[in-house]
Amino acid sequence: MRLRNFINKISKANFFKGFAIYLGSSVINKAIPFLLLPILTKYLTPEEYGVLAIYQVMISFVMPLIGMNMQNNITRNFFSKSKEFVAQIIFNMLVVLTIASIAITFILSVYLYFGGTNFSIPNRWIYALPVLAFMSMLNTFNLTILRNKKKALQFGVFEISKTAIDLSLTVLLVVVYKYSWEGRATGILISTIILGLISFFHIWKSEYILFKFDKKQINEILRISLPLIPHAIGGVIMTVGDRIFIDQMVGTAEMGIYAVGYQFGMIMTLVTTAFNQTWTPWVYELLAKNKEENKIKIVKATYLTATGFVILALVITAISYFLLPLMTTEQYHGAFVYVIWVALGYAFYGMYTLVFPYGVHVGKTSFLGVTTLLAAIINIAGNFILIKLNGPVGSAQATLISYVFMFVSVWWYSNKLFPMPWFKLNTK
Asked: Is the dihedral of CA 92, 96, 101, 102 positive or negative?
């Protein structure tokens, strides 16, 4: 009865308002890898699919170095500061973003000039990485503003537009023009640039850019965001480092098969990402009021959601058993063995996103970086040991272990920074 009343209270408080739109846009956006699986696995060999996976690894590594999760500065100030302040801080975030992009471009140039390995990726695609990161962050800034303004429909339009452009270009270039993995990479690049430019124009037209340089704000941005770089890098290592281990310890072909299984496990993120779009503004808004009843509401919602994530991971695994053979050619059917480990791993990552906001709320983000780096180290060690013991599936097992560690650690430390009534579920 209490659980039913609690769910009704959340619904009446419009917690789930817009969730259907966020979920729908997230499903469509994240569905690209699955919609493309029958195409890519037909037109790309496992080796070519592996090269594409390596390039996506590179994108994932460059993104946090340039973007630094700066969008958290928008949400952190959105409900407690004036629109003018938020618009000014967004301009100064753009200054930091531009400087970071130039710096990373220079570093990549020096790296390639002195003969650094490019993992069989043409240099032109290496130089495209900072552009991808810059434009992607413009889109992220815009989506963050829309999410905090509870403009779910506009949010969905931007998300789906990028998906439509990306999907159309990829099919055209891979199927019609036979550009192999570079056709997929081109679709990602062009769609990201288009949406980045449109996002910048939308932010500017919405008067969320105030052209006023402020050294104090830049220092604050860096104070909050710089500690999130190791946090983001650690997250990237856990997300994509397994593919590098498999590539080096087993082979590129097996890594391509693993990448397919990983995509099915990542179906979990369709819900966790969409849920987080609603969860984060809701949590920050309630925390800003600092009332005990709001804290209890958040705690109950956290337990309920975490349970749902685990159940969903098991359901996804069961569905994948039947779906994977229908969507891929026979040489990829062995990918199923990886699904359960990846799905559960992302269930715990979803739980981690539920407790992540507390450190940002109080401006203490350093521990997030330390925790994620420790989890990344566990992931690296786990890959090395478990692949030797269990074969490629050991890599997926290492992913689950590292995400469990990250969730538990951040939950524990966040409660030290900002105590929550985790054991007061009977409080009315």
From this structure: positive
Selected residue with higher pLDDT from 188 and 17: 188
Instruction: From 225, 252, 213, 215, select the one nearest 52 (Cα to Cα).
Output: 252
CA angle, corner 383, sides to 125 and 51, nearest 5? 20
Q: What is the pLDDT of residue 428?
A: 47
Residue 362 and residue 306 share a domain: yes
Same domain, 13 and 86: no
Say yes or no to pLDDT of 7 above 50: no
Q: Pick the more confident residue, 40 or 132.
A: 132
Q: Read off the pLDDT of residues 367-387 as tens digits, 9 standing for 90 and up.
A: 777 888 889 899 999 999 999
Residue 148 to residue 10: CA distance in whole angstroms: 18
Do the Cβ atoms of 272 and 346 come closer than 8 Å?
A: yes
d(CA 336, CA 126): 32
CB 397: neighbour CB atoms within 10 A? Answer: 23
Domain finish residue from 168, 186, 214: 214
C-alpha–C-alpha distance, residues 99 and 97, integer Å: 6
Are 172 and 231 members of one domain?
no
Domain residue limits at 248: 1-17+227-428
Please spell the DSSP secondary structure of 349-418, one letter per residue. HHHHHHHTHHHHHTT--HHHHHHHHHHHHHHHHHHHHHHHHHTTHHHHHHHHHHHHHHHHHHHHHHHHHS
Nearest residue to 160 via CA among 269, 19, 27: 27
Residue 318 tokens read as 């069961």
- Copy the structure tokens of residue 55: 């390039």
Q: Are residues 259 and 345 in the same domain?
A: yes
Residue with tokens 């550009």: 179
Residue 42's Cα: distance from chain center in Å?
Answer: 27
CA–CA separation, 103 vs 97, rounded Å?
A: 10
pTM: 0.70
Residue at 240 is within a domain: yes
Residue type, 196: G
Mean pLDDT within 315-327 = 90
Of 302, 55, 20, nearest to 186 (Cα)? 55
Check residue 170 and give its pLDDT. Answer: 92
Task: Output the furthest CA–CA distance in the chain (Å, rounded).
Answer: 67
141 shares its domain with 265: no
Question: Which 3 state secondary structure label does DSSP give 420?
Answer: coil
Predicted pLDDT of residue 13: 47
